[in-house]
Automatic annotation (TrEMBL):
Residues 496-709 form the Peptidase S9 prolyl oligopeptidase catalytic domain. This is prolyl oligopeptidase. Residues 22-392 form the Peptidase S9A N-terminal domain. It comes from Collimonas rhizosphaerae. Keywords: Hydrolase, Protease, Serine protease, Signal. Pfam families: Peptidase_S9, Peptidase_S9_N. Transmembrane segments: none annotated.
Amino acid sequence: MATAVATLVTALPAHAASVAPVQDVSDVLHGVTVKDPYRYFENVKDPKVQSWLKEQGESARKELDRIELRNQLEQRIADISAATGDDIRDITRMPGNQVYYLKRARGEKQFKLVMRDSLQGPERVLVDPELDAKRTGVPHAINYFVPAWDGRHVAYGVSAGGSEDASLYILDTASGKNVGEPIPRVHEALLGWLPDSKSLTYNQLKALKPGDPDSETYLDSKVMWLKVGAPAAEAKAVFGPTVTTDLGLARLDVGAILFNPGSRWMVARTTDTTLPEGFLFVADVADLDKPAIAWKKISSFDDKITDAELKGNDLYLLTHDHAPRNRVLKLDLRHPDLKLAREVASAPPDAVLEKFSLTRDALIGEVREGTSIVLRRYAAGDTKGQNIPLPFKGAATVHNDPAHAYSDVLYTLNGWTELPRTLLLKGKLSSDPGLRVNPPMPGLPEVEVVDVKVTSHDGALVPMTLLYKKGLKRDGSNPTLLDGYAAYGFSQTAGFSPARMAWLERGGVLAFANVRGSGVYGDDWYRAGFKATKSNTWKDGVACAKYLIAEGYATPKTLGVMGTSAGGIFVGRTVTSAPELFAAAIFNVGIMDAVRAEDSANGITNISEFGSARNPKEFPALLEMSTYHNIKDNTAYPAVMLVHGMNDPRVDVWHSAKTAARLQAATSSGKPVLLRLDMQAGHGVGSTATQRYALSADIYSFLLWQMGKAKQAD
């Protein structure tokens, strides 16, 4: 039941561009009346909503541009970034010594797809999205790439304006020209090249019909099989809820098929795009040519398998079943009964086996120890594994060797205060293969990194990592930023950031909290901040804020808090639970209205993470975790800047719009509530370097302004 009455607010909130009309909508959900005064903002295409958003964005821009040190900060971030050299990511090593990766060269805006014929070979640019940006005036980005096993082709996706609405292209690597036509609605790298490299499978979303709700976007997707050079119309649907109807798939089961050049098998895997657990099925690659594929079920969601790798006749499985800190099983696909799988790798005590990779002759585990990730080698028969010494403390990421063609391992090591280094591991010795130019560390202050544990409301010890300039005085005067995420089991992880360094050298403190909902201690810690237990996420956040004040790092006049995306729940509910602790807060592309989120395109995929308002058992926790519904009138809230991109496909911009309007009307502090909008950005994926520098400068200058460390020009 819903009712709506239009009301106009007469008092103009401090710093608001203009008053947002209230339309009093109320829903009765499971006997609870839920008010929603700004629901009309969910119709983002409404001209009146567009006008208000534009006005808010322009007003925020003016306020931010008046902060005197804002431009200095942006320039400093750009300078530090330039001094760190080229940015390289998503390195993939293919048979025949070919190496592919995304590279954003020093001074350039966007990542290009490049390749080398060997680690020491010359670079060759394959795809440059800046050409599309110059042609259209809209930023373009490479969302993913997957090379064919023989290196003759590479499949890649490109989207515009941060939308992540990628189309699939196939490039002939010799000629540098695309083969065939672009294939729309292929958003993710759910691609698989067949062993002969002559065809591939990909997951394609359906085309929505006029009038279809956004929540239909990710339902009923299909895995298509296409031969290179054939028209897209000739692609054959081979897997999916509406294709393989006898497999018991749900409409939200999004599929991909795994292949390997040394294997006769293909493995179909599903997720709901949010939780990694799902179905696994196996069939013979030769079955693709048959009218119907004889898929054999290996596992379902309840088997708690979160990753899979195929090698010959064996399927390697990462699972938290009977192992909250994870283990790896090996299953012989000639006898595809999960009960026959045997353990080949386990997590060491007090650590989490977070990921694994296969080499020609071993398994390499990425093992989480707090915010650091170390490497561990598991040889055949050694389930405990051996630690691999690393050059410095940080987070190691093993790069993709999908064919498992090499005995040595390419990985990148990144630290809080160390520039990322890409290294080649042979045995236990790491050396520089020359893939990345390692410039000297730019002139920056010496930074201390301190790990602490904070006692939360129920006695749980919450790990938090602090960064600050050496010699910092704990007199409460330091601008301090508490940052948390805590969803999907993702954890705060060590990594060098030029923007953070610009904050630290101005005397700032950074506090990264792995509150419950993260996976820092494995599945149990994650489940302790999940659905019905989600309140631990922000209660841990409040405890961390009180710790920073009690230990003299900050006071309520110099303490800020930030959360991004699903971290919007962390930051929003921390602020609305204890507004008196903070001078300012950053709600960055955050989930703000958890009750209504499931009616959006990506929101429906997050029901498995947060719950459904239609479920009477899950609704109370959703209402409690919804920042928008927990804002109270006449409350002295801290200054808030809400950040969003208009093309965000993951968290709709109306989350920030509704919350900004509600905060502007409710706050009694007189402090600003700004809605910073980027008309050519999305969730941050695909943003150019220029956009990233500008956003960081806006965030840090806003915080310094509200902490009394920066002034505005008249």
